[in-house]
Design brief:
It is a single chain. The protein is mainly alpha-helical. The protein is rod-shaped, with a radius of gyration of 40 Å.
Length: 94
């Protein structure tokens, strides 16, 4: 073989080596992308589950607020009636 053919083959080998490196790097990048996509899917599932839990808590809280509000009003009415009854009973003492 002539020197010219050997140089040409060396250049081709060099280019093939670079191509192999690039393909290896692309495989690594693709693997990272797949991992990131799986991670993102897990996060979305977690977010969806949390959203469902928040919706349940909001419904429960709305119901509890209604009940609590009425119980609080009833307790205040009992307290006011008790204080009024106390003053009514004490008015005869003075």
């Amino acid at each position: 073989m002539s020197a010219e053919h050997e140089q040409r083959l060396e250049r081709i080998e060099g280019k093939l080596d670079k191509l192999a490196e690039v393909i290896t790097e692309l495989a690594r990048i693709e693997e990272r992308m797949v991992h990131e996509q799986e991670s993102r899917q897990r996060m979305w599932k977690s977010i969806e589950a949390l959203t469902m839990r928040v919706a349940v808590v909001e419904k429960s809280t709305a119901g509890n607020s209604f009940i609590t509000r009425h119980i609080e009003r009833f307790v205040w009415a009992v307290i006011v009636a008790g204080v009024g009854l106390g003053f009514y009973l004490l008015r005869g003492a003075f």
